[in-house]
Design brief:
Length: 336
């Protein structure tokens, strides 16, 4: 089964062709990162306009790369939430028009389900059930994946997403947007135990997280140094921040896996590209005897292949949408 998959939830336009949910025939991505770097973050209106400018050409390029004609497509899958509402609308409306014009099914896909499904592309042997740690710029979730379309959230951030905090911390340290890779590189130059940053806990909800206090602590340290003229060890602060994020994610993922009886953990999302988080997950899973799957860096960020992978299993589960499909800024991962 050949699926044309569309992803426009934030600032990257992505169109892919995926076969049977496991094989990526093409994945074309147009990044807007350089443009939004001028503003230190994503400007929603600009993101939406850029999606409109390139999406049709990307689809043609993906089909050409895959060696597939329009008449060879069996379905169209599209991210319909969560995300920046204007950006998601561009992808949804494009996908609806393609499905209607070709007379093929339209499959709505939850963005975070897609991130988890990136592992199906990277690891064809992977099958549910497993515990997923999905960490990106807009979402931080611990998810029990009972089956391909049966997912339950066990824990989530109560405020900021971990990826958003990486961007905010990077900005206050004078690093470019997006902040994940620059923070990772800077942290490797830092020294341990220079800064002591908070690790929040949510009373009564052991798997939930809170990152706003950590973000505020980094901002306060940087502003205090600037106002008093004290030297700020940016590399060591980046390391302390990264360690704090990892310390709030990894033990919770292990504890959640133990609670629901899973012995396999899957990481997903842009923050899963962080080298410290990857190594800590590897260490913790090895200590517990758990299997760990982390997608290659190219499949951690937003891409179309992940939407095609999840779209295939949504299709098998009977999920379809019509021309009334709308975009959603917020959307529970359990929603079909």
């Amino acid at each position: 089964m050949l699926i044309l998959a569309v992803e426009t939830s934030c600032d990257e336009t992505a169109v892919a062709v995926v076969e049977d949910g496991r094989r990526m025939l093409a994945d074309r991505i147009a990044s807007q990162a350089d443009m939004h770097a001028l503003y230190g973050g994503v400007v929603p209106e600009i993101a939406s306009r850029k999606h409109m400018e390139v999406i049709a050409q990307l689809a043609d390029a993906a089909l050409a790369e895959a060696g597939v004609g329009r008449d060879g497509l069996d379905a169209v899958a599209v991210t319909y939430g969560p995300g920046l509402i204007g950006a998601v609308l561009v992808g949804v409306n494009f996908a609806k028009s393609v499905a209607w014009a070709l007379g093929i099914p339209l499959i709505p896909v939850h963005h975070v389900r897609g991130h988890i499904a990136a592992n199906y592309i990277a690891f064809p042997e992977l099958t549910p059930p497993f515990l997923a740690l999905a960490v990106s710029g807009g979402n931080t979730l611990i998810v029990d994946v009972k089956d391909y379309t049966d997912l339950t959230v066990l824990g989530a951030t109560r405020d900021d997403a971990a990826g958003e905090c990486f961007d905010k911390a990077a900005r206050v340290l004078g690093l470019p947007y997006p902040g994940g890779a620059p923070m990772d590189a800077l942290a490797r130059e830092g020294q341990e135990s220079v800064y002591d940053l908070p690790r929040a806990r949510v009373s009564g909800s052991p798997f939930d997280m809170s990152f706003s206090g950590l973000k505020t602590a980094v901002v306060n340290l940087a502003h205090h140094a600037e106002q008093t003229g004290e030297a700020l060890d940016k590399a060591s602060l980046a390391l302390a921040f990264t360690r704090a994020v990892s310390d709030m994610l990894v033990p919770r993922a292990i504890a959640a896996a133990q609670a629901c009886g899973r012995r396999c953990i899957v990481a997903a999302g842009g923050v899963a590209a962080n080298s410290f988080l990857r190594s800590e997950l590897e260490r913790a899973c090895a200590a517990e005897g758990y299997r760990l799957y982390i997608p290659p860096l190219a499949l951690c960020g937003d891409n179309g292949a992940m939407i095609g992978a999840q779209g295939y299993y949504e299709y098998l589960a009977g999920v379809r949408a019509g021309t009334s499909l709308n975009a959603c800024a917020t959307l529970d991962i359990g929603t079909l």
